Structures are given as C-alpha cells and as structure tokens.
Amino acid sequence: MPEVHLEREGAVVTVVLDDARRKNAMTPELGDALAARVLELKRDPDLRAVVLTGAGDAFSAGGDLGMLERLRKSSFAEARAFMMGFYQRYLSITELQVPVIAAIRGPAIGAGLCVALASDLLVIDEEAKLGLNFVQLGLHPGMGATYLVPRRVGPQRAAELLLTGRRFGGRDAVAWGMALEALPGAEVLPRAQALAAQIAGNAPLAVRALKMELGVDRAALLAALDQEAHEQAVSYGSADLEEGLRAVVEKRKPSFSGV
After folding, report:
1. Which of 129, 216, 223, 254 is the most buried (most CB within 10 A)?
2. pTM tops 0.70, yes or no
3. For the CA atoms of 230, 38, 5, 111, what is the dihedral angle to 10 degrees?
4. Can you name the residues that pair with 52 across neighbouring β-strands?
C-alpha cells in the first residue's frame, strides 16, 4: 500500500509521498495517507515548516490511469463527487498553517505538479520532467490547475501550458516564476530543507500570519475545484478520454473525435 512518511529535523518535517514503484502516482490510497499525515501535523504545536517530496526518482507521475479507467464506468454524479473528495485529500496541504516547500526531483506530471504548485515555495530539479498533460489524455484539468497555474505563471503562460499539455523542464519553471530555484537533482531536497530550517528560525507568529496572507485564496481555489470536478465528470463520459487512455497504453498519438 502507498505510504506517506514523516522525517523530522527540529521544527521542520519532511513529508515523503511513497509509492515509488508507481512513481508516486496519485491514487485515493496515497491521498488518504497524505491527508492523515496533514491532520497529524496540524496538531503539532512545535511545527514551523514542512518540506513535501516524493520517494524514489519521481515527485509524482500524476493521476493513476487505472483510477481513470474505473471512473469512466461511473455515473456523472458519482465521478463528480469522487473528484471533489480526491482533490481535497491531496490539497489538504493548503490547510497547514506553516509554510510548505515542495522539493521536486524527477517527473511531476498533471495533478502531481498541481499539488506541488499548491505549496508556498518550490525548489526543483533542473532536469525535472514537468507537464500539465490533461488535454493530451482527453481530460479536463483538475486538482486546482485552473487556479494554481495562472497564479504562478500568469494567464498567458498558463493558457499555453494547459491548452497544449506540452512538457517542460525545471529551468523553464524558474524562468516563468513557477519555481524558486532549479538545482542538480541531488541538491534539491537538502536546499529545500535548509530553506525550511531558515524559515523555522524566524518568529512563528509572524511567519504563520504571512503564510495565510501569501498563500492560496481558499475560496477561489474551492470555486475552481467545483468547476473542475464538473468538467472532469463530463470528460469521464467521453469517447475522447477512452481514446486518450488507449493511446497511452498503445504508445501512440491519440486521435480525438470531440465526443
């Protein structure tokens, strides 16, 4: 079963998404484990900063394809309700009252990248493979993409990345303001942890207040999630998603019909 580990160094806790065999693909089980750890951290009076990373050689390869196949067999209402719960599991990190620094090594794709973008700061592998490839699968973006991506890179770049679904790298992410720093892979986690330790050494009341002021607008995020859940439920009933998933399995370019 997927797990989420906590590694503590003083007032800093590193949260590790651990389903390395599947490159930390986003499943309900991994989301449950993350939400449980977030609840634990919310009760920790000594916590001052969090680092979020993935086990193995990936941050997250994105949504689990098996889960998407199962959702294709669900009703519209079932799929919509499921997606809202799915988002809430992973985006529970936005409920933490201390700064969260995402440390991305290797791939961060689709919903996996969105979870990193929900953090306060992002340190990234300069060779990271990144993408918001929802439309290439025949799927409307989810996990807050329509709010989180424009918030980081502005409306024009966000539109280009979401409409094309193209891949890009860690240096691109820094150039666009999506990430703070791009470093060699081995340096990413130590740098994120050092940054978290620096933050943890500051006045906690002031830092917590800044976290609330600079962090996501939860009302705006919730509105985006509500619309995304609706549109993703529409996608699950489409022939386009069926074609997109089949193309992934067959390692070919999909041919979408718009139905």
Report:
1. 216
2. yes
3. 20
4. 15, 102
Q: Is 163 strand, coil or helix? A: helix
Residue 232: partners with Cβ closer than 8 Å, 6 or more residues away: 79, 80, 83, 139, 140, 142
Average pLDDT value for residue range 65-86: 96
Using only C-alpha atoms, what is the Rg of the chain?
18
Choose among 85, 127, 88, 86: nearest CA to 108: 127
Which has the closest alpha carbon to 204: 98, 91, 82? Answer: 98
The domain segmentation of the chain, as residue ranges, is: 3-184
CA dihedral 217, 222, 223, 229 (to 10 degrees): 150
Say how far apart CA 228 and CA 144 lie, in whole Å: 7
Q: For the purposes of burial, counting CB atoms within 10 Å of the CB of 198, is it exposed (0-12), middle (13-18) or buried (19 or more)?
A: exposed
DSSP conformation letters of 23-71 = TT-B-HHHHHHHHHHHHHHHT-TT--EEEEEESTT-SB--B-HHHHHHH
CATH top-level class of 3-184: alpha beta
pLDDT digits (tens, 9 = 90+) for 157-202: 999 999 999 999 999 999 999 999 999 999 999 999 999 999 999 9
> Do 40 and 197 meet the contact criterion of CB atoms below 8 Å apart?
no
